[in-house]
Amino acid sequence: MKEKIVTKASNLFLRLGFKSVTMDDIAGEMCISKKTIYKYFCNKEVLIEESTTMAHKQLHEVIDTIVAKNYNAIHENFEIREMFRDMFKNNTDTSPICQLKKHYPEIYQNALSHEIDQCCLYFRENIVKGINQELYRKDLNIDIYVKFYYTLIFHIHETTVSEKGAQQVELEALEYHIRAMATAKGILELEKQLKKISA
């Protein structure tokens, strides 16, 4: 039951917002009493913490699945972006990350520090893969490029209130990031991926 509550709460928080969803809403959606929720979670903050942990775990499982498909490094980045877009397609008004930062700053900071470590690891592996595939330049300072990109991505999500707006800026950031690293072969692959989006 505990896992079912966390799953339902995660979906509601991401769709409707961390602040606006109440324990009553979760109980109503699940057709259970609020007392049942409080049996497992002493307050809403604890439930939000568990929900963000579950969301991050699911997110990285999906990323691992995409990486396992062995696309080239640039195609892989676009597939992951598409996955994020699908995940938040019902939420075009308010960015869940902005809400979490505003209303539950301590939970946000804990989630962020873990997320930065995970994302930096993925960004690094993607750059190494791209260099090996001759899509990215061999002379890159990988640490600097990892830092540049995660600073860009996290700044977008921290400061863009609309989820739809964040996704649009994120696509520009991805293009900017890849163009800065790409070889001539990489530019051709980037143009191919951009054409697929606009088609």
Explained architecture:
The chain has 199 residues and is mainly alpha-helical. The chain has 10 helices and no strands. It has helices spanning 2-16, 23-30, 34-40, 44-68, 73-87, 96-103, 105-132, 142-159, 163-181, 184-198. It starts with a helix and ends with a helix.
Topology:
Layout lengths: L1 H15 L6 H8 L3 H7 L3 H25 L4 H15 L8 H8 L1 H28 L9 H18 L3 H19 L2 H15 L1
Helix pairs in contact: 1-4, 4-5, 4-7, 5-7, 5-9, 6-7, 7-8, 8-9, 9-10
Give descriptors for this structure.
single chain, 199 residues, mainly alpha, Tetracycline Repressor, domain 2, 10 helices, elongated
Put the structure in a nutshell.
The protein has helices at 2-16, 23-30, 34-40, 44-68, 73-87, 96-103, 105-132, 142-159, 163-181, 184-198. The chain is mostly helical and 199 residues long.
Largest sheet: none
Domain module count: 1
Q: Which structural class do the helices and strands define?
A: mainly alpha
Shape descriptor reads: elongated
CATH class: Mainly Alpha
The count of DSSP E runs of length 2 or more, i.e. the number of strands, is 0
